[in-house]
Design brief:
Layout (H helix, E strand, L loop, with lengths): L13 H31 L9 H4 L2 H26 L3 H31 L8 H34 L3 H34 L1
Helix pairs in contact: 1-5, 1-6, 3-4, 3-6, 4-5, 5-6
């Protein structure tokens, strides 16, 4: 395996570069998935039937906390990748752990939000609006949950094997995934919650 030491560790072999390219293609498919879910939501968001609309169930404070936690986690994972590139294993792992804890905080608020909706009679069966909303939010939440366990697995590998082209490549690809989830959340925050509260 030829290692190009002039490149960052995660790009240092041809296999690594191909894996990163392949993951960008995968993210393209993820964009199509979320674009479809957003399209369904925008088509059905006025179809509330006898149930509540967004203005009645959305609460700004928890959503702002969710946004703060995810955007902060995007910053900390960026710091983790930087630490990885300069060979600071302990700092890299610390920033990745902080990122995952912020992700857990996000999930805790989102789960509480779903429980609140259900207690208010806003379930996935109540209306087309709520069905499309919960599918969109649930899909994003499932991705964050998967990301948490994926991140834990990478941390275990880095702890056992150290920073090498393979572990660095996995960690960098994970960081791309995490940034992608943050970008999706910005769209959810802007076009679902804020638009729903205003209208």
């Amino acid at each position: 395996m030829k290692i190009d030491s002039s490149l960052p560790l995660e790009y240092s072999t041809e296999e690594n570069r191909l894996k990163i390219f392949g993951f960008w293609i995968f993210l393209g498919a993820e964009i199509v998935l979320f674009a479809t879910l957003f399209t369904v939501y925008f088509t059905l968001h006025t179809r509330t039937g006898s149930g509540p609309d967004g203005a009645e169930i959305f609460e700004l404070t928890p959503v702002l906390w969710e946004t703060f936690l995810l955007l902060t986690s995007s910053f900390t994972i960026g710091l983790g990748v930087h630490a990885m590139r300069i060979g600071r294993k302990k700092a890299m792992m610390t920033f990745f752990i902080i990122t995952l804890l912020l992700g857990l905080g996000f999930l805790a608020i989102e789960i509480d939000e779903f429980v609140t909706y259900v207690h208010e009679g806003a379930t996935i069966q109540t209306s087309a609006f709520l069905s499309s909303l919960m599918t969109l939010l649930g899909t994003h939440g499932a991705h964050v949950t998967f990301g948490f366990f994926w991140g834990v697995a990478i941390l275990i590998q880095v702890a056992k094997r150290g920073l090498n082209p393979q572990t660095a490549n996995k960690a960098f690809i994970f960081s791309l995934y995490w940034h992608f989830l943050d970008v999706v959340w910005i769209f959810i925050f802007s076009f679902v919650y804020l638009k729903g509260l205003i209208s």
